[in-house]
Design a protein that fits this description.
By secondary structure, the chain is α+β, with helices and mostly antiparallel strands. The protein is built from 21 helices and 26 strands.
Length: 721
């Protein structure tokens, strides 16, 4: 690609409408305007006094915080019976492993990071140390001089993680349950350590307003939880008040940059402004911050949540971040009589409906799809990081005052935000659609009695994170059998920097060893992909569902290629047909990234694994000259067979790769489990355009449903046995 086209597509990725805002921010930074508006260091005592309403006295801090607690989600005098009700929701062993153990590790100087790893930052904690890479970030420089992609400093997220204070939610919950003074003392000790090490604007911890917001949420939750402890002194509470002011001022003067990114940063920072404005009426700017925060929230939620409920960032985890921001802000708004607009809440309800279609009800897990940076804004349950039931349950209660899952450990978040009355909310269980379409975001699902799959087919109008069009995620009996490889790190060494975002890390077809889009600088992709839905049908009795779509990402190649995929569900059997429609011979690779189930070859291009319910089988048919092989944990000549379920952690993963070369090629994959009611293991394929024949145990009515849903592209033949 020549330089002119490169710059054209780079600007297109930023957004032509957004370019003036980004250039203005860059100019203000280069000219020192931002540095002058928000210089490093603290303002003088007299100037700070003027930032409070007339008559405010720091000596009355404790009274202000008691009043604040009465306008918060819960009271520090939370009754023993309420905590007993939470304890009864789940197993004590889960609480011990996922809450008590986190606090015990903290006492040893190890912080739970990215919902998974315990990383050593010491005690006293060293908040400006990246414990994953053993790097100490410099301090004493203005916050605008720290970059996310600083050579030699690796991943900025790794030095932010402990300073996000997510661990404080665990300490607070442990204190509320057991009332141990040393838990409260631990939080305040670490709060003071962070304060000493991070003077305003002079460390990397002040770079991002979203990080400041998350930190403020955790501070407030833990401070109010421990308000009745001896550790919550007036001096400490007043210092937290000051730091909330610094955080809110910082957000207020930079939120236009966050809005220019068109992602959850704007939502989080708006929620931060709203929080400071609602909970700190002693600030002179409180009313303005409150109104600005709620205005931006209403506006950007309507912009960022598509009408079908899917989310602008094309990421399951960022969908949860968005809902957590909403939960915090909307619930505070309810308490203070400033709810979000009804139109906004209706759009949020669509986002909840979308998420419920993506949650596996047996495990609470969702496809590991899109950017997954380990973020969990409100870790308020004894569930694993991968369990999305806590956020869905709480959002369901916010919007409908009912629950969508039976009672369980995932109810704790709902209780912490809404109080004991939430425990009496009826359960209105969500029934998964047999065929669900979210065309604005390009998500399509097909579901049987014991299985479901998600397919992507989208023409991007907002920044994509991964090159993965027509990717298929498949779940059988609660197991994510065909899965996404994840995203690993935002900034790391090659080849890992590119692998997890590439088409090769997804269940789709790769042409000429290239991704469907061209990788641009940092998080950007160039020449955003275009796709088209061709067919999406389901039979009236629910036994058959069919998706068909194609994308044009490879039409840029010297030998242009269109990839067309059809996914047929027959009860809990799945047939995937990939047609590669090219003008010349191209190297082609189809990959299936598989759950760790001990897969082994079983005949020609057939692979088997064991589920609790029986044998799982994947069979591939391809044109002559194509080969199927099992791969796992390969690093050279290019990575093959890796996945990252949790941020900054990668593990070997079994992959079936089907590869060869051709012009017009058809690949067909059949996957089913032995516990299904029918067996369909005999099918034939010809070239693209010819019907696929399925034989064996397909009765006449089922054959008719298959032919109708697929428009005759797939036909069932043969008798009932």
């Amino acid at each position: 690609m020549n330089r002119l086209l490169y710059h054209y597509y780079t600007v297109s990725a930023i957004g032509w409408d957004n370019l003036p805002r980004r250039l203005w921010h860059l100019a203000r930074q280069k000219l020192g305007v931002i540095r002058r508006r928000l210089p490093g260091g603290e303002i003088g005592a007299e100037a700070f006094r003027r930032e409070f309403i007339p008559g405010y006295q720091a000596a009355e801090t404790a009274r202000h915080w008691r009043e604040r607690a009465r306008r918060f989600f819960f009271s520090p005098e939370s009754s023993t019976s309420d905590e007993a009700a939470i304890a009864a929701l789940g197993e004590e062993a889960d609480w011990s492993r996922r809450v008590t153990h986190v606090v015990d590790e903290l006492r040893q100087g190890r912080v739970l990071s990215f919902g998974r790893q315990f990383l050593e930052i010491g005690r006293p904690p060293q908040f400006n140390r990246d414990p994953l890479h053993g790097l100490d970030w410099p301090t004493g420089r203005h916050w605008t001089t720290y970059g996310q992609f600083t050579p030699g400093m690796r991943d900025l997220k790794c030095v932010w993680e402990a300073s996000r204070f997510s661990w404080a939610f665990y300490v607070a919950r442990a204190y509320l349950r057991d009332r141990r003074e040393d838990d409260a003392a631990l939080f305040w000790e670490w709060f003071e350590a962070w304060d000493r090490q991070n003077p305003y604007g002079l460390t990397a911890q002040w770079v991002c307003g979203q990080e400041g917001t998350f930190r403020m949420f955790a501070w407030l939750f833990a401070a109010i939880a421990t308000l009745d402890s001896g550790s919550a002194t007036s001096e400490r509470l007043h210092r937290m008040t000051e730091l909330v002011w610094y955080t809110a001022r910082h957000i207020d003067r930079n939120i236009d940059y966050a809005r220019g990114q068109k992602n959850n940063h704007a939502l989080s920072e708006a929620a931060g402004l709203l929080t400071a404005g609602l909970l700190f009426p002693e600030f002179r700017q409180a009313a303005r911050w409150r109104e600005k925060g709620i205005r931006i929230l209403n506006c950007d939620l309507m912009r960022q949540i598509y009408p079908d409920g899917s989310y602008v960032q094309h990421s399951m985890n960022y969908h949860r971040v968005m809902l957590d921001d909403v939960l915090w802000a909307a619930r505070l708004g309810e308490i203070h009589g400033r709810p979000l607009d009804p139109q906004t809440l209706a759009r949020v309800e669509q986002a909840l409906n979308w998420l419920l279609e993506m949650i596996d009800p047996d495990t609470g897990r969702v496809p590991n799809y899109g950017s997954n940076d380990g973020a969990q804004v409100l870790p308020l349950s004894a569930c694993d990081y991968t369990d999305f039931r806590p956020v869905a349950q709480a959002a369901h209660y916010l919007l409908r005052r009912t629950r969508c899952f039976r009672p369980g450990a995932w109810d704790e978040k709902m209780y912490r935000l809404f109080g004991a009355e939430a425990f009496s909310a009826p359960v209105m269980a969500h029934v998964r659609s047999r065929a669900f379409a979210a065309p604005d975001g390009g998500y399509y699902t097909l579901a049987g009695k014991r299985s479901w799959g998600m397919i992507r087919c989208h023409t991007y109008r907002d920044r994509p994170s991964q090159s993965d069009m027509l990717h298929l995620d498949l779940w059988i009996n609660g197991v994510n059998v065909l899965r996404d490889a994840g995203s690993y790190h935002y900034y790391c060494a090659t080849p890992w920097q590119d692998y997890f975002y590439s088409s090769a890390a997804h269940n789709t077809v790769e042409i000429e060893g290239q991704s469907q889009m061209i990788k641009g600088p940092r998080f950007t992709w160039l020449r955003w992909i275009r796709s088209r839905l061709l067919r999406f049908e389901a039979s009236g009795d629910g036994r058959v569902g069919y998706f068909e779509g194609e994308h044009y990402g490879y039409t840029r190649l010297p030998n242009p290629v269109v990839h067309r995929r059809g996914v047929l569900r027959i009860d809990d059997h799945y047939l995937i047909i990939d047609d590669v429609l090219g003008a010349g011979a191209n190297p082609i690779a189809l990959r299936w990234h598989l759950a760790d189930l001990g897969w082994k070859p079983s005949g020609s291009a057939t692979f088997e694994a064991s589920l609790e319910s029986g044998t799982l089988r994947l069979r591939v048919l391809a044109s002559q000259g194509f080969e199927a092989e099992l791969l796992s944990g390969r690093e050279s000549p290019r990575p093959e067979g890796w996945e990252s379920v949790y941020y900054a952690e990668k593990l070997p993963q079994t992959v079936v790769r089907v590869s060869g070369c051709g012009t017009r090629v058809r690949l067909a994959s059949w996957i089913d489990s032995a516990d299904n009611e029918i067996t369909v293991d005999d099918f034939s394929i010809d070239g693209p355009g010819s019907p696929i024949q399925i034989r064996r145990r397909i009765d006449a009515s089922l054959a008719a449903a298959i032919e109708q849903c697929t428009g005759g592209r797939i036909r069932g033949t043969g008798g009932s046995g």
